[in-house]
């Protein structure tokens, strides 16, 4: 599809359009998921404060919804234990 021409939007309409596009993108991500590389690229570009906030806000949920008994590989169990240790340190 090719569109030609120009459209001038007032600030309020532009903000509504941006929000709608953002909602559509989020729905698409929820439906089809993110690729690991996309998440990694985003996290690498975050400021330390944003990264720390994301990490702290999501760590509890991740650990709470993970059944350690369902982790079968030793390396994966070690990763889960490291995350548990990090949580303990963050709670100090």
What order do the helices and strands come in, and which of them pair?
Layout: H1 11-32, H2 36-45, H3 48-64, H4 74-90
**Category by helix and strand content:** mainly alpha
Question: Low-confidence segments, ≥5 residues, pLDDT <50?
Answer: none
H/E topology pattern: HHHH
- Number of DSSP strand runs: 0
Mean pLDDT across every amino acid position: 89
Give the DSSP E fraction (strand runs of 2 or more residues): under 5%
The rounded Rg comes to 20 Å
- Gross morphology is elongated
Helix proportion: over 70%
Major beta sheet summary: none
- Distinct helical segment count: 4
Q: Compute the separation of the termini in Å.
A: 56 Å
Give an overview in words.
The chain is 72% helix and 0% strand. The protein has helices at residues 11-32, 36-45, 48-64, 74-90. The longest helix is centred in the first third of the chain and has 22 residues, at 11-32.
Concise account of the structure shown:
Helices cover 72% and strands 0% of the residues. The chain is mainly alpha-helical and 92 residues long.
Structural features:
mainly alpha, elongated, 92 residues
């Amino acid at each position: 599809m090719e569109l030609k021409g120009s459209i001038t939007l007032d600030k309020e309409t532009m903000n509504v359009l941006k929000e709608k596009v953002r909602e559509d993108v989020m729905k698409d991500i929820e439906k089809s998921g993110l690729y690991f590389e996309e998440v990694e690229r985003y996290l690498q570009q975050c400021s330390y404060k944003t990264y720390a906030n994301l990490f702290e806000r999501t760590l509890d949920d991740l650990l709470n919804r993970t059944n350690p008994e369902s982790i079968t590989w030793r390396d994966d169990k070690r990763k889960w234990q490291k995350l548990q240790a990090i949580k303990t340190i963050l709670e100090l």
